[in-house]
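Q: Hi! First time doing this. I have a protein sequence and I read that you can turn it into a structure. Is that right? Here it is:
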Amino acid sequence: MLFILSGPSGCGKSTLARKTLAQLKGLDFSVSHTTRRRRKNEEDNKDYHFVTKDEFEALIKAGKMVEWAEVHGCFYGTSYKELEKKGAGFDLLLDIDVQGAMQIQGRVKKAVFVFILPPSFSELKRRLIDRGENSPEEIRNRLEIAKKEIRQYPQFDYVIINENLESAVKELKSVVTSTRCMLSMRQKRIRPIIQSFSEEEAG
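A: Yes, that's right. Below is the predicted 3D structure, encoded as structure tokens:
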């Protein structure tokens, strides 16, 4: 199953994704492509595939991106290759922007969409300032975009309010675990169990 984690910049979705991946087995991370600068704590091909604008545009023209968007002046996107490679045998977690999540809704049938909300506008602003990675103008721009992005929450299956990180991690793990227990997800395991009862009756 594909789990789409989205929300405004500064809501904490990347930290939430990282902690959930460390605690939950059978869940893999889909590495997105981006043209933005690599942050000091990030690794290429682990946190993102860091590429140039020309390289990104070439991927788009070749039809290799399942979703992409320009956000805060940089390109972000997910390749079909990444989904095919990581999705075999694993549940897959995507940490993407709201524009990208909306694109995937129209292109991928089986996916669970989770929206991450900050507890308030003022808290989102504080987190962006404390991150120390953006200029005041960039922060203002991100906050204006966030005002529009949060209106999309009704389009998602689940909403997690990231006020307390550990509680938010528990909620995201619960979403993944409950999805794994759905009838449609358990059919392969159910069939041999049911068959064993039929064989016992026949014996």
